[in-house]
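Audit log entry. Action: structure prediction of a protein-small molecule complex. Ligand: 2-acetamido-2-deoxy-beta-D-glucopyranose. The ligand was supplied as SMILES and no pocket hint was given, so placement is left entirely to the predictor. Protonation state taken as written. Sequence taken verbatim from the request; no trimming, no tag removal. Recorded inputs:
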Amino acid sequence: MLWFLLLLGVSGVLGEPSQDEVFSLPGLNTKINFKQWSGYLEASPGIHLHYWFVTSQQDPTSDPVVLWLNGGPGCSSLDGFLSENGPFHVNDNGSTLYINEYSWNKVANMLYLESPAGVGFSYSDSGDYATNDKQVAENNYLALLDFFRKFPNFTKNAFYIFGESYGGIYTPTLAFKITDGAAEIHFKGFAVGNGLSSRYYNDQALVYFAYYHGLIGDTLWSKLNQFCCTGERCNFHNNTDRVCVELIRHVQDIIFDSGLNVYSLYMDCSGGMQRNSARFHRDIENLFRFYQFHTVTTREAAHKMTPPCINGTAQWNWLNRADVRTALHIPQRIPVWEVCSQVVGEGYEHIYDTMQDFYLQLLSKGLRVLVYNGDTDMACNFLGDHWFVRSLKQKKTVEYQPWVCDHQIAGFYEQYGNLTFLTIKGAGHMVPQWAPKQALQMFKSYLSHSPY
Ligand SMILES: *[C@@H]1O[C@H](CO)[C@@H](O)[C@H](O)[C@H]1NC(C)=O
Ligand SMILES: *[C@@H]1O[C@H](CO)[C@@H](O)[C@H](O)[C@H]1NC(C)=O
Ligand SMILES: *[C@@H]1O[C@H](CO)[C@@H](O)[C@H](O)[C@H]1NC(C)=O
Ligand SMILES: *[C@@H]1O[C@H](CO)[C@@H](O)[C@H](O)[C@H]1NC(C)=O
Ligand SMILES: *[C@@H]1O[C@H](CO)[C@@H](O)[C@H](O)[C@H]1NC(C)=O
């Protein structure tokens, strides 16, 4: 009898995988009003992706399931959990978890997936971590199917994906897999926050962003206009003029290598200005990629796995505690957790330069799409994403206008039927971290299909 019950529990017949359930967490001293699971989802044979699933604090049965993906490529969604939109965040020395009152699981069942294998606690049996955009979409899709197998209770809920940064590639490519696949998933839409949507628009807009935010001055700006432009048409993305290339390199130096916080222009760089280091992070290699400017100059910089000017020490301290790993069901053989994996970043093959075709097909299938940007970010700047959205040539239904949170203008938005572009004023790359209240309001409005 006992073995029978055990078997039932383990095989998930009761509706959820009991072996993955998390009952208590080191450092969490408050009682929580939701359930959580942490374990592995099986993707392609030998690929095991770590997930952490927290149910909604409101109504798990009727609230949607939302998958959250951080970018990189190579960065962990647990950073999103512990410092952006998860139910608790971690204090400096990793000793205490405190409640995030703007957690997105106030209104949704949140699924955090560490992807691809090699990121965070995710791993592959072969230990080979070279991958590409197509394999990532396939493995994320297979992992998602495994999630719904493990949690059959949630198959009837509406499902959405939110991706940040390089999640701008992961999200629409996974969305396409879902709409193309046969699985019964009630997929309703997706959102991309400060995402890489088009290399062309991202590069092109960044130079204007830099000039109009006072970063490059008139001398450089007029030279850029002289050598990179023909009449009104400028090409900062893949210009082959030798002088122009040098000027773009100069712009890149100012943005990434002069000590500015590339993720948040008006915030300080944690630890002080970091010269000759910014280049090596993957997010930054996503910019001006055509010119292949990135050159590693110091060993220290090459081994730097935390995004420049960002302090991930608290998350690192907590996630690498032995008792935390045990509580999260992480096998002992899995190496230390890092915010971003250098191995994954370096072995990654970028296949897509633009997500245009994906968006057009997904919109034609009736999905609701939100493209949102903290407007002080330079890794994936708001202007490039705005131009990308405009390039989809959908019919405008709501004119560009402010949206309001707490009697203050929280940003601006415009709508094209099911496609919304929205900014979060004064926020950087990690919107839920730096504008938590506005981010939660945006999240709720999007999910409930109500005005922003
Ligand atoms: C999942 O289903 C099981 C069995 O029907 C039920 O006991 C459990 O409460 C359900 N969980 C949720 C979150 O709905
Ligand atoms: C960690 O920080 C907390 C306060 O945030 C403090 O009470 C505790 O003593 C610190 N622990 C260590 C080991 O430094
Ligand atoms: C430059 O980029 C544009 C837009 O992505 C593309 O159509 C064109 O082929 C590229 N040219 C070169 C030389 O790579
Ligand atoms: C990063 O955070 C840790 C813990 O919160 C702190 O001890 C350290 O001084 C910080 N590092 C920098 C460079 O600010
Ligand atoms: C918007 O999405 C809804 C379903 O969410 C769909 O019925 C409608 O046709 C879509 N509108 C457009 C213009 O595609």
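Audit: result stored. Confidence is low (pLDDT under 50) at residues 1-13. The CA atoms of residues 77 and 87 lie 14 Å apart.
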